[in-house]
From TrEMBL:
<feature type="transmembrane region" description="Helical">
    <location>
        <begin position="26"/>
        <end position="48"/>
    </location>
</feature>
<dbReference type="InterPro" id="IPR000725">
    <property type="entry name" value="Olfact_rcpt"/>
</dbReference>
<dbReference type="InterPro" id="IPR000276">
    <property type="entry name" value="GPCR_Rhodpsn"/>
</dbReference>
<feature type="transmembrane region" description="Helical">
    <location>
        <begin position="272"/>
        <end position="292"/>
    </location>
</feature>
<feature type="transmembrane region" description="Helical">
    <location>
        <begin position="237"/>
        <end position="260"/>
    </location>
</feature>
<keyword id="KW-0807">Transducer</keyword>
<feature type="transmembrane region" description="Helical">
    <location>
        <begin position="197"/>
        <end position="216"/>
    </location>
</feature>
<dbReference type="GO" id="GO:0004930">
    <property type="term" value="F:G protein-coupled receptor activity"/>
</dbReference>
<comment type="function">
    <text>Putative odorant or sperm cell receptor.</text>
</comment>
<keyword id="KW-0472">Membrane</keyword>
<comment type="similarity">
    <text>Belongs to the G-protein coupled receptor 1 family.</text>
</comment>
<feature type="transmembrane region" description="Helical">
    <location>
        <begin position="140"/>
        <end position="158"/>
    </location>
</feature>
<feature type="transmembrane region" description="Helical">
    <location>
        <begin position="101"/>
        <end position="120"/>
    </location>
</feature>
<dbReference type="GO" id="GO:0004984">
    <property type="term" value="F:olfactory receptor activity"/>
</dbReference>
<dbReference type="Pfam" id="PF13853">
    <property type="entry name" value="7tm_4"/>
</dbReference>
<keyword id="KW-0675">Receptor</keyword>
<keyword id="KW-0297">G-protein coupled receptor</keyword>
Length: 314
């Protein structure tokens, strides 16, 4: 155990991104634009789906949840990053750091669970089109969302409590732009074996199981299309799945590159660039992937904004 007579760390310093000072303003503007785009894009999706009753289907309700999750996920790190880029002392209080870690895990997991729910929804829509409305009932959708919230709350709480047990001694500089769990573990002067074990096991479960479920859904979709191959069936499956597949690839692509590719000497820089990818770029792109490719969303945009003069009746 670390000595009891050491003063406990009450705040951390976030070292931030390795940006040279001449370029600071440029990057600040870039990140600000990206963050504002993320917030507006996702709010627009939530707003459209809420207002347009034709989009009150499981697929769009999950998408609306995904947008909410993207919005929150990016808001966990971006405002603090932007604030710290402008401040002299980029500090974060100890409790703030743990809170950030909790919500980072929470919304990151939520994203992955929602992608599974969406894959299952596409699987039912393509393989059992006639039973779609009975299988994907509002009750099932709500249960899937509630189950995800329950599980990820436990997961995020487990890691946060395990982190709260650790002691932090002299070194309080986090070489990252947010309170990243592995960066915090490296700083700690307690024994972190239990934490590492739990991260390894839970990380495996939380990443690998959803990934396998998604792969299984798509394998079933592909095999059901191949049984009765027709140009129309393929086109229909492709048009309903392509957006989801693009989002899944973006999300898991980053995770796989981050965790499975061997890291070089400058691994902190690589970690940070990849973290930028999934905290900023992915949440920003998701609304575009869904709205640009999607006729329903464009239709909703037209319907919602072109009948502005009459009050909404949903
Ligand atoms: C999330 O999904 C549930 C279940 O389909 C739905 O009732 C709820 O309105 C959605 N929440 C948001 C913010 O879209």
């Amino acid at each position: 155990m670390a000595g009891r007579n050491q003063t406990a760390v009450t705040e951390f310093l976030l070292q931030g991104l390795p940006i040279e000072s001449e370029q600071k303003n440029l990057f600040y503007a870039l990140f600000l634009v990206m963050y504002v785009t993320t917030v507006l894009g996702n709010l627009l999706i939530i707003f459209l789906i809420r207002l347009d009753s034709q989009l009150h289907t499981p697929m769009y309700l999950f998408l609306s949840n995904l947008s909410f999750s993207d919005l929150c996920f990016s808001s966990v790190t971006m405002p603090k990053l932007l604030h710290n880029m402008q401040s002299q002392v980029p500090s974060i209080p100890y409790a703030g750091c743990l809170t950030q870690m909790y919500f980072f895990l929470f919304f990151g997991d939520l994203e992955s669970f929602l992608l599974v729910a969406m894959a299952y929804d596409r699987y039912v829509a393509i393989c059992f089109p006639l039973h779609y409305t009975t299988i994907m009932s509002p009750k099932l959708c709500l249960s899937l969302v509630a189950l995800s919230w329950g599980l990820i709350r436990l997961h995020a709480m487990l890691h946060t409590l395990l982190m709260a047990r650790l002691c932090f001694c002299a070194d309080n500089v986090i070489p990252h732009f947010f309170c990243d769990m592995s960066a915090l573990l490296k700083l700690s002067c307690s024994d972190t074996q239990v934490n590492e074990l739990v991260i390894f096991i839970m990380g495996g479960l939380i990443v690998v199981i959803p990934f396998l479920l998604i792969i299984t859904s798509y394998a079933r979709i592909v095999s059901s299309i191949l049984k009765v191959p027709s140009a129309r069936g393929i086109r229909k499956a492709f048009s309903t799945c392509s957006s989801h597949l693009a989002v899944v690839s973006l999300f898991y692509g980053t995770v796989i590159v981050l965790y499975l590719c061997p890291s070089a000497d400058n691994s902190t820089v690589k970690d940070m660039v990849m973290a930028m990818m999934y905290t900023v770029v992915t949440p920003m792109l998701n609304p575009f992937i869904y709205s640009l490719r999607n006729r329903d969303m464009k239709g909703a945009l037209g319907r919602v904004f072109c009948r502005k003069k009459t009050p909404f009746s949903v």
